[in-house]
Design brief:
The protein is of the alpha+beta class. The chain has one domain. Helix content is 39%, strand content 18%. The chain contains four helices and five strands. Strands 1, 2, 3, 4 and 5 form a five-stranded mixed β-sheet that branches. Helix 2 runs antiparallel to helix 3. The chain is globular, with a radius of gyration of 17 Å. The two termini are 16 Å apart. The mean pLDDT is 92.
């Protein structure tokens, strides 16, 4: 079974090729996710000065929020509607759901992330990054990739 995903990354660099090199280094050194194949989607990659940048960035950020909301909805459907109810959360699917929520809130990159800022180690757009986009848009690149893991889970073994 194969896992196929798409991620968009904010990366600082002189050009797209430099950012792609940085992303490959990121994937070589990250401990949480392993992919067998990574390909850049050039038509969905651009610097912050591009007309399509804001739309692509907003879409990726919204996908992160939607994924987080869906995970929270999974807990709520099972009756875990407030923080104190989590004390009775059984180990298994629901505790793994909570674990994924915690990782996303902490800013850890994982297979569930649609967007990740490599330089800020964040699943959100930080104030510092917003400033850099405003001051040096030519150095802030949104790079979108498609990735595949042949063993189906994308996690390091």
């Amino acid at each position: 079974m194969s896992l196929n995903v798409q991620h968009s990354f904010l990366v600082t660099g002189q050009n797209l090729d430099a950012c792609i090199t940085r992303l490959h280094h990121f994937f070589e050194t990250t401990q949480l996710v392993r992919y067998d194949d990574i390909q850049t989607i050039r038509e969905k990659s651009c610097p912050a000065q591009s007309e399509k940048f804001s739309l692509l960035l907003d879409q990726a950020l919204q996908k992160n929020r939607d994924r987080l909301k869906a995970l929270l909805d999974d807990l709520q459907v099972e009756g875990y509607t407030d923080i104190t109810s989590l004390i009775n959360l059984p180990q298994g699917f629901l505790s793994k759901t909570l674990h994924t929520i915690a990782h996303m809130e902490d800013g850890f990159f994982g297979i569930d992330a649609a967007f990740f800022d490599v330089d800020e180690s964040s699943l959100r757009l930080t104030g510092r990054r917003r400033q850099l986009i405003n001051d040096h848009p030519e150095e802030c690149w949104l790079v979108t990739i498609k990735a595949r893991s042949m063993d189906g889970d994308g996690f390091e073994s």
